[in-house]
Every structure is written in C-alpha cells, then in structure tokens.
Amino acid sequence: MKAKEIRIAYCSVDIGELDKDLQRLVEEAKRQTDSAYCPYSNFSVGAAVLLDNGVIVGGNNQENIAYPSGLCAERTAMFYANSQHPDHKPMAIAIAAKNGGQFLDKPICPCGGCRQALLEAELRYKSPIRVILYGTQDTLVIESIADMLPFAFVSFD
Ligand code: THU
Q: 90 alpha carbon to ligand 1 midpoint, in Å?
C-alpha cells in the first residue's frame, strides 16, 4: 500500500487586496442575493461570473416547491454566462450568501453538484476559474474549481 495525499492552496484576503475587476465581481455577487427566490430556505445566495471581456454575469438561487427542481446560484450564473456569452471564457466567480437577510461572516462553498458543473466550464474553456468566497469576516480565494473538487469525474478513459 502506498499512502498518497492531495493538498490545495487557498488565500484569505481583504477585499481591498483584490484587483478592481474582482472587487466589482464580489459587489455583484452580494447584490445578486437581493433577487434570489428562496421562500423555502430563506437562504439567499448570489453568484457573479467575470468573463474575459470584462462583462459580469450574475445569478442567484431559484427554489421550487418540488425542492430538487430548484437551482443553486452558482449554476444559475454560470449556465447563463455560458448560454449568452459562449465565446467568452469565464475568468472568475464570486459567491456571497445571506441567512435571514444578513451576510454570513464565514463564506459558503459551492455544493458538490455546482463544483462538477463549474468544472465543466474550466474543461470547456481550457482555463482555470478563480473562486472568491465572500464573508464579512473572511473572504477566501481559490485559484481553480479543480482545486475544490479532487477526484472529479472528468473522463471516461
Ligand atoms: N445554495 C446555493 O445557491 N449555492 C450553494 O452553494 C449552496 C446552496 C442554495 C440552494 C437552496 O436554494 C438554498 O441555498 C439552501 O440550500
């Protein structure tokens, strides 16, 4: 038997340390929480995707009375970006969440299903997508979706 290990690097940042485009991206993710449709959970999630032409596309969670039929903010934003701007590579995604109307102090991470869906965009555009997870006390930056999903399903070979 041979023990193996996977490590991932990530940073804790102050928003002011991010470049201007990424600061704008975080602001948009925060703003997107205001239009989440989440009557069942009251948990509003906003996401914003920065494209390689500087355009920012936002999305938020959209719930459904038949629970599994809803969609997370990250997939709403990325699917919208990919559907409306297929020729523009996503460079970064920011995520923010509010519980009972208050931004969380510690950030949330995308669920497993969203990580797999976001990874598809990295594979499709052959480029890492930076992830910014906003919290009022701590904001984290991860350099790629692949880092967040070790042992991802990526190939049939
Ligand atoms: N949710 C997201 O939109 N993104 C996440 O990363 C985690 C969870 C949504 C799904 C559901 O509408 C609500 O948050 C509570 O789980």
A: 21
